[in-house]
Amino acid sequence: MKIEAPKIPADLPARNFHDILYEEDLELEMCQVQHSVFNDEVLNKVRLSKMVLKNCKFIHTDFSGIDMTDVIFENCDFSNAKMSISSIHKCTFSNCKLLGVDFTDSRLRNVQFNDSLLNLAAFGSSKLEKVRFQDSPVESSDFYDCGFKNVEFNKCVLDGVNFERTSLNGVDISTSTFQSLMVSPSDLRGCKVSTYQAIQFSALLGLEIID
Question: Which of 17, 53, 141, 198 is in Cβ range 3.0-4.6 Å of 121 for a Cys bridge?
């Protein structure tokens, strides 16, 4: 699957994330931000575009309604941040901590999560199109009633993930691992799994395999 990468201009000027507080439209664009700490804040309907953020902390921050396009996050900590009802397009999260982040009712398109921690994240009722989770644990995360189109879980830990009311048709989880999942048999139709996973699903469905 080809995912459209963020388009970032060269030679971006440096800014501090707190600069957004002085922007009339709560917008930051065409810049790079490093080592900003923006914890326990409430900042709704922020717009970020064409920028890079590195080594920043946004713990327990409420970004509800955030709009992000062409943004790269590297080594950032969003633990327990709220990004519900958000629009995330052409964004990459690399080596980020997204523990318990609330992405509910959001739209994600051309998004990559690389080597990032997504345990206990909530994506309920979101639409994901061209989204790749790569080498990223998503244990006990919630994808209840989501719409998936071209979604990949490559070498991820999926234990305890909730896929109830979410069709996995066309979704490839064959390189990922889990002990248990919450998923309805009808939503498994068309899901791409390994031979071992097929046996696991048989056990979860109460089937008895006889050699």
Answer: 141
